[in-house]
């Protein structure tokens, strides 16, 4: 029977703790020239706690935690000027990170290619991306099935060059020297596929305009 281990006040089952430690070791091999294992372990366990407590995501948590922590650590390196990069970091934030921000991130990744690093987050993440949103994006050749809702964290804002909010601007901290925009868009949650297509197409137009302004030819 698994015993529970308390790490900094958060209770984690021993089996899960072992999986998280292995994730931290893998991430340390990736970031070993810039971050020590202690820092990486801190971010891994904190990321697990954030996903468990602040989002509705409850399955595959150790695996998703590793991806979430890697994203946060990469943003941390840029925000602290520990990693030189020629790419532009763009963050899309909506309430649930299950619709608008996921579609915007999908379009920005496709259109920006290796010129951009794209992240998305939510002020109150849901368990999964809307099925209609996944279907609507698949119709235009963008597969977002492997994405998942993530809570908004400070370092991803600090590590971004442009921050686009959609109905949750007050939840996003403001840092000088960054570009902020708030896009007023209808929420696709619980909408028909026809309605989601309309929102999708509007998001694509806005992403195209944003990209042309951020990375002029």
From TrEMBL:
The keyword Ribonucleoprotein does not apply. Keywords: Arsenical resistance. GO terms for biological process: response to arsenic-containing substance. Residues 88-213 form the Phosphotyrosine protein phosphatase I domain. It holds the Pfam family Phosphatase-like_N. This is Unannotated protein.
């Amino acid at each position: 029977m698994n015993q529970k281990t308390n790490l900094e006040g958060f209770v984690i089952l021993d089996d899960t703790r072992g999986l998280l430690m292995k994730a931290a070791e893998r991430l340390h091999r990736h970031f070993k020239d810039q971050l020590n294992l202690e820092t990486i372990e801190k971010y891994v366990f904190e990321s697990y706690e954030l996903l468990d407590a602040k989002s509705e995501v409850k399955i595959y948590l150790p695996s998703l935690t590793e991806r979430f922590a890697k994203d946060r650590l990469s943003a941390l390196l840029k925000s602290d000027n520990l990693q030189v990069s020629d790419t532009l970091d763009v963050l899309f934030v909506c309430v649930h990170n299950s619709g608008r921000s996921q579609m915007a991130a999908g379009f920005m990744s496709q259109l920006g290619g290796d010129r951009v690093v794209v992240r998305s987050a939510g002020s109150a993440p849901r368990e999964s991306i809307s099925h209609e949103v996944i279907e609507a994006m698949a119709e235009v050749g963008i597969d977002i099935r492997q994405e998942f809702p993530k809570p908004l964290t400070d370092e991803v804002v600090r590590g971004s060059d442009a921050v686009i909010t959609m109905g949750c601007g007050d939840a996003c901290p403001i840092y000088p020297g960054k570009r902020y925009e708030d896009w007023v868009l209808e929420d696709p949650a619980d909408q028909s596929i026809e309605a989601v297509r309309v929102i999708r197409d509007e998001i694509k137009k806005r992403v195209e305009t944003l990209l042309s302004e951020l990375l002029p030819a």
